[in-house]
Amino acid sequence: MAEHKYKFNITMTCGGCSGAVERVLKKLDGVKSYDVSLDTQTADIVTEESVDYSTVLEKIKKTGKKVNSGEADGVAQAV
User: Fold this and answer.
1) What are the residue ranges spanned by the domains of the chain?
2) What is residue 30's DSSP assignment?
3) What's 3-73's CATH class?
4) Phi and psi for 5 in degrees, rounded to 5?
5) Could you say which of 2, 43, 51, 57 would form a disulfide bridge with 47 (CB–CB 3.0 to 4.6 Å)?
């Protein structure tokens, strides 16, 4: 089965911020894996083919964190 790889640059100032992003990704159906890094201010996410970029972006934005940039399968996307 095909999958998508998404990468987001997110402003996170503390462990609570990165934890909030991790919690919404853990609850999102179709997410196979994720790596949220406070040090690099990034979230790398692998999803099933059925999960689109905008769905993941909106879930991250609902945490109140600022998404600075995003990529879908290596291609820059609007945020």
Assistant:
1) 3-73
2) T
3) alpha beta
4) -120, 120
5) 51
